[in-house]
Records
---
Amino acid sequence: MEGFGINTNLLETNVLNLTVVIGVLWVVGKDVLSSLLTERKKKIVQTLQDVENRFQDAQLKLEKAKKNLSEAQAKAKILQSQSRTTAEETRKNSILRGTFEVTRLEETKKSTLDLEKQKLRNEIRSLLTAGALQKAVEKMKQKKSSSLIQKQFVDLLINKISFNN
């Protein structure tokens, strides 16, 4: 049979149909597929560029953070050294102040003791002198000596009192 007709052979008809479909897809779909692949390629390239830019930014931030860290560590070492120095100076000053205060208190104690000793000596002298005068006056009254002896004795005691003070 020649001409048009129905072909009942499935294998031949499928091959023919597939050829026609592929041909139509090739002609019609080639531009669409090409534009889709081009767009996809552009998106991938753009994404890679964005990733590269972010990576470079991250690298810059990392370098800056490392620099800041090293500066902070250097400052921390300086502060630590200064704080040690300050602590040592404070300790030395405290020791010096304590030593000075102990010395001052010792001197105050000594001068207070010396002052109290002097007061006690003066008081004892006064009491002894008063007692001696009183005894002398009593003896003079008992003996009823002459006024000249009494005068000489009183003058002697007055000179002694004046000399001691």
---
Amino acid sequence: MGQKGFSLIELLIVVAIILVLAAIAIPNLVRARMSANHASAVGGLRGIATAEIQYQSNYPLVGFSNTLIQLGTGAATNPPTVCPAGGATSAAACLIDGVLTAATTFPKSGYVVAETGVVGAGGVNTTYSAEAGPVTFDRTGIQTYCVIPDNIIRVNNNNNVSGLPGVNPVSCLQAPFTPLAN
């Protein structure tokens, strides 16, 4: 009478096949996740650029916003803060959602995002720069991005570090940043 079940060799072959499939699938999964994170960072910067135009129009005595907190809900919290019950103000314009408002403190989709207004003549913010950088280089993303009032998203394809690149309106226009090909 024969034994029923699998031999050790048969089990080892199945395990080897599973390991080969995992070795192929996991890197592709990581690349797909990074690609989604890149798209989210670019989308966030596009939203910020659009919101800045509206903010400048709504609050001409302020100009562009100083931070994402002003542009958004007025606080960087997790879970995200909702817009104030009293309505939008220059301190909490509610032009971006609470997740993006807090993206400097609580990263959004693997990217840290920040925005800084630059004071010009008469104490009005005449320009701004917004930037996005991967939380963990080569795990959550590899590229860094920036945008200034010309609303052109620029990318640094040569980035090799985690975090914010520390861009200002002038450095966003210079190498290694180049306009994002859309």
---
Amino acid sequence: MVNAAWDSGRRCRGQVTPDAYVVARGGSVVSSEINPKTVMTVTTSSGTREQPVPEELRDAPVLDSAQASSLARLGERIEQLYGVPMDVEWAVHDGQFVILQARPITNLPAPREVWNDSLAGDYLWTSGNVSEAVPGVMTPVTWSVIQELAMPAIGGHPTSGNIGGRFYLNLSTSMAIAPLSGW
């Protein structure tokens, strides 16, 4: 996502709600939210000062679609360089984007655990009669207990799995060892 606030090319310092552009990887703008801007910071001979944004610019988008796409692609390049999602601060100088700083994003939510062991391989899974013992979706605590009590993998193949929060048995593993046991 690209956030942009019109601030006469200076830092916003959190005093305006920035425009927000959602840009897909590759650069196409998916959506944008243009917010009103009421204050801007301008350069003076002694530093900076705040002044009202001119009426004709208050509801104007900060970036056009091409600029948002270009900025997002620049952000993707920075992410590739560092190998992690980055928070990038930028400005525009003489019509060109200038990167002020970039740092890893530290407040991303933890990746969600995917409870779909059917993705682990081409196995035949069944929940036959297991649903009587574990009738609903398991909590992570229940799943951790079941993992401790379940049979260990055989030849690197799981004997049980978790699919959508429900306990499943791997029939492929059982059927592969059945001839060995005389079933």
